[in-house]
Write a structure and sequence with these properties.
The complex is a heterodimer of chains A (526) and B (431). By secondary structure, chain A is α+β, with helices and mostly antiparallel strands. Chain A is built from 13 helices and 22 strands. Chain B has a 5-stranded mixed β-sheet with strand order 6-5-11-8-9. The termini of chain B are far apart. The chains are: A alpha+beta (526), B alpha/beta (431).
């Protein structure tokens, strides 16, 4: 364990640690573009220069391994001047089109310019012309003039996805990122290249031109796209959610997330949601407030308590499962609880990196809760049989949030609509449900970004997440809906986690981010 | 003083190219001797001879060899025959006139370092030397000098020629290794150094053509005999490629510490057309330029040229007479480095282009006075900031030309035309 001094602070590091890693893990600032903790070392941006005592030449921190007694500093005038020039070399051919660039506000060049730059540019020659608006594939657009050739995206496709679609073509200041002939950047993780691009060269087709980043707040949460449970940051403002980016968690997703997981924000925005509950009557659909609808439906549930079946998907939090099962088994006394397994043919598949066939964030949590309440893993066929022989008259469904991954949705609706009373709770719109006849209640639920809770991922790791914001204020969570369906009054009480410790290191960070991103206005006095 | 033909003694004879002729002049006798020695003995002998890398860096060859890990891991010997440094054409002569000398030197070196496979990486434009080498290697295989159990010693060795595609950067040892591996010819980040992890991530030694050929006389007559030439720190003989405005340009083999003045005026036959010497680039295009006064005083060895503020480099001496415009000459060099930068490291990728554009702005008559200092600042910040030395190679001529011939640059900016030639030398094209 070599000891070293970095900017006057004594640090002990593991054998083989590089200077930049030591600085990174000790919250010391160091400018860098090409180095990324999840990728190999390229050593090409030459920005992470530092001075090592006894060495007349500045060294790059990313490729210098710390040795015993090493004295490093990156705050001296010499280092700052080198960084300033390093930055200037990056900027001389940069188009400086920040006003129309999506990266503006979170751009490495802007950040470092505020730190090292603030000079008058001396470059008076013609800038290098390169390709703009290069369509790299279905998800990503490239602007070569903005590119600083840090090669992070190339290394990502080489080392992480191992698809090697990207390469650097040509030489010298004519170098450009590109794809090999006839092979677009098309893999399930392509948008990570946009995240790791330190400048505005790679932009996401989904996000570009939709929102300036300084109008977005962000908060950490857990992706509900599959049973991996990637830690993510959701970006939103009062108009809704705009994008999702991965957050580092070494135990779960490392630095990455899949492209499909980035789409989940779309299902929480108002356009996709039920805003009001609906009750089907002989006169047609009647709009109600969600709470009122649940209360209204409680009459049929209570009247048919023994014939009531509860269908659960793996899309809710452990706390909600706990609460809903408690209510149904203890208050209503029903034991007919069914697990809706979606996508059953590929349920157990895994793509080798992050994406799992079980497209539910909390299947594990659901199964644990069912076991806890002594509920046998009832078969789907029993449900169908019960509906056919009339032993099941009322079905309460906690439907999916991400309906795209429930390809059998239509078929399940057909099956369950045979019940005399159908109470369907879910977040998003569904044309099939809205065209049903008979006794139907459609009750809007809160999405995962609107509630606190815990997801237990495929390997049993419990991850707590906090409410990000409110999109549909009247929507219920599953606990509330269950209480109302059981005829109780809604009790407002602080949520308590049923699961003990969270594996996420991020609670502290989360709070800080929250503080940082709160739009606080100080009110004056007269 | 005339040449000292230690290596080039028989270069004038056509028969020396073929195996039979080479053997007639004592060829492959040294190999037979070497194969009876202990490998470590050869390394020690080379170390003792003071032989330094002839490709440009001038690093001690024996020391380089001793960096190899002492284990049985497979290792490679690569001969750097990329010879991309402008002004250098000595390796070409050696490959064309004495391919077997190189092959013999390589087999001995391979035996010393325990390599079973070597490659000669030849510059892409060198079609004829490649043909000569390939023929010579075939002859050597046929004669049992390559392949299994060479000369009954039990030592196996295979050799191949690999043609580059003409990129300057592939003359840099790790760039060459990348190219040989089939990758884009870009230098690799060091550490790890090639001696630890080189070609195919195996220990690798890269030596210049002239270095490997020089192993032959060293093993033949011993380190002490080799040390008779040159100085304590710069031992032996060296080829110099003399070019530019001299009467007799060409390759000359002289002992190190040979006077530059004699090189230009005696061997080179003096400056052409009765003109006066203006400047000399002493070690290939990346070596800082020397003024006439500096050049006439300097001796051709590593230390003397370094003391004069330049470097011996590959031994390419480019002579400029007083009809040359230094702004124009610098523009030629900056264009070259701008074109040849591999584009990996930002200071080099952007810096080479920047200085090239500034120099061409001056050359087209629209330079600004502050551009002259800007050139120095940019060049200064390209130095020592990159993975390989190309950035330094591009910066050094800029600094030396501008510092030593500042009046010509200032005149060009002020008057909008060359001080020497009297006209504008470059019409900028719209691109």
């Amino acid at each position: 364990m070599p000891k070293c001094t970095i900017n006057g602070k004594e640090i002990e590091v593991k054998e083989g640690t590089t200077i930049i890693e030591a600085m990174y893990s000790n919250d010391q600032k160091i400018a860098h573009y090409c180095w990324h903790p999840g990728l190999s070392v390229a050593g090409v941006c030459r920005l992470c220069m530092c001075e090592i005592e006894g060495n007349p030449r500045l060294q790059i921190a990313c490729n210098t391994v710390i040795t015993e007694g090493m004295k490093v500093n990156n705050t001296s005038e010499k280092v700052r001047d080198a960084a300033k020039w390093g930055l200037d070399f990056h900027l001389i051919n940069h188009p400086l089109d920040c006003p129309i660039c999506d990266q503006a506000g979170e751009c490495g060049l802007q950040d470092q310019y505020m730190e090292f730059g603030k000079y008058d540019p001396e470059m008076a020659e013609r800038k290098q012309k390169k390709h703009k608006v290069v369509d790299l594939g279905p998800t990503v657009v490239l602007d070569s003039e903005r590119c600083i050739l840090c090669s992070r995206c190339v290394r990502f496709t080489d080392e992480v996805t191992k698809t090697s679609e990207l390469g650097i073509f040509n030489r010298g200041d004519k170098s450009e990122i590109g794809t090999h002939d006839g092979k677009p950047l098309d893999n399930k993780y392509s948008l990570n290249t946009v995240d790791i691009c330190p400048v505005g060269a790679l932009t996401s087709k989904d996000f570009r031109f939709r929102q300036r980043v300084w109008y977005l707040k962000d908060q950490e949460t857990v992706c509900n796209g599959c049973s991996t449970g990637c830690n993510v940051k959701a970006y939103f403002n009062k108009e809704g959610f705009y994008r999702v980016k991965p957050q580092h968690n070494a135990e779960v997703n490392g630095y990455w997330m899949c492209d499909e997981g980035r789409d989940v924000y779309k299902y929480v925005n108002r356009e996709a949601r039920w805003l009001k509950a609906q009750k089907r009557t002989s006169a047609g659909w009647e709009e109600m407030l969600p709470g009122a609808a649940a209360k209204d439906a409680s009459s049929v549930v209570k009247a048919n308590a023994s014939g009531t079946a509860l269908v659960l998907t793996g899309q809710y939090s452990s706390e909600e499962y706990e609460s809903v099962l408690k209510t149904f088994t203890q208050e209503l006394g029903t034991k007919k609880v069914f697990h809706w397994v979606n996508n059953s043919s590929s349920f157990d598949s895994f793509d080798g990196l992050l994406l799992r066939g079980d497209r539910n964030p909390n299947t594990k949590g659901l199964l644990t809760a069912m076991e806890k309440f002594g509920l046998p893993a009832s078969k789907w066929a029993d449900l169908e049989a019960g509906l056919a022989n009339g032993s099941i008259t009322t079905v309460v469904v906690a439907g999916p949030e991400n309906q795209v991954w429930f390809p059998e949705m239509k078929q399940v609706i057909q099956t369950l609509s045979k019940a005399k009373n159908l109470i369907w709770m879910q977040t998003g719109k569904n044309a099939e449900l809205e065209s049903l006849s008979g006794n139907v209640w459609l009750i809007p639920m809160k999405s995962y970004v609107e509630k606190d809770g815990t997801f237990v991922n495929y390997k049993g790791l419990a991850q707590k997440f906090k409410k990000v914001t409110t999109v549909v204020s009247e929507a219920l969570n599953l606990s509330e809906a269950a209480q109302l369906l059981a005829g109780q009054n809604l009790m407002i009480k602080p949520e308590t986690s049923v699961l003990v410790e969270t594996a996420r290191p991020a609670d502290r960070v989360m709070q800080e981010h929250r503080k940082k991103n709160e739009f606080v206005m100080k009110r004056g006095t007269l | 003083m005339s040449e000292t033909k230690l290596l080039s003694e028989h270069y004038d004879k056509d028969e020396f190219i073929g195996l039979a002729g080479y053997k007639k002049h004592g060829g492959y006798e040294v190999l037979a001797k070497a194969l009876k020695m202990q490998p470590q003995q050869i390394i020690d002998e080379v170390k003792a001879s003071g032989l330094r890398g002839r490709g440009g860096a001038g690093f001690s060859t024996g020391t380089k060899w001793s960096f190899l890990p002492k284990n049985n891991e497979p290792r490679y010997l690569l001969c750097n025959a990329d010879e991309g440094e402008p002004g250098t054409f000595k390796d070409r002569l050696m490959m064309e006139r004495a391919p077997h000398q190189l092959i013999e030197g390589m087999i001995i070196s391979s035996f010393a370092i325990g390599s079973k496979k070597s490659y000669i990486y030849v510059r892409g434009e060198y079609h004829y030397p490649i043909a000569v080498l390939e023929k010579a290697i075939r002859e050597a295989y046929d004669a049992g000098l390559l392949g299994k159990n060479i000369l009954g010693s039990g030592f196996d060795h295979d050799m191949d020629v690999y043609s580059g595609a003409g990129a300057y950067i592939c003359g840099e040892e790790t760039g060459m290794i990348s190219s040989l591996e089939g990758l884009k010819g870009q230098p690799k980040l060091k550490p790890p150094f090639p001696a630890v992890q080189g070609y195919l991530r195996k220990p690798t030694i890269v030596n210049n053509v002239e270095t490997l050929a020089a192993v032959v006389p060293i093993i033949k007559d011993g380190a002490a005999a080799y040390r008779k030439f040159g100085t304590e720190k710069s031992a032996g003989t060296k080829f110099f490629s003399l070019s530019g405005n001299v009467n007799k340009p060409g390759n000359y083999e002289v002992p190190l510490a040979y006077p530059m003045k004699d090189m230009i005026y005696k061997l080179g036959g003096g400056i052409r057309n009765g003109k006066k010497l203006k400047a000399v680039i002493p070690g290939g295009s990346s070596a800082p330029v020397l003024t006439a006064e500096e050049a006439e005083k300097v001796l051709l060895d590593y230390e003397s040229i370094a003391a004069a503020g330049s470097m011996l480099g590959s031994g390419a001496i480019i002579v400029l007479d007083d009809s040359q415009c230094m702004v124009d000459c610098l523009a030629n060099l900056t264009h070259f480095y701008h074109h040849e930068s591999c584009g990996q490291c930002t200071p080099c990728r952007e810096g080479t282009g920047w200085v090239d554009k500034i120099v061409h702005s001056i050359l087209s008559g629209r330079g600004r006075l502050q551009d002259i200092d800007l050139l120095l600042k940019v060049a200064d910040n390209m130095k020592g900031r990159t993975i390989c030395a190309l950035s330094d190679a591009a910066a050094l001529p800029v600094i030396s030309f501008v510092t030593k011939f500042r009046d010509e640059f200032e005149y060009y900016v002020r008057e909008g035309r060359s001080k020497v030639k009297g006209t504008v030398l470059y019409a900028e094209m719209h691109h």
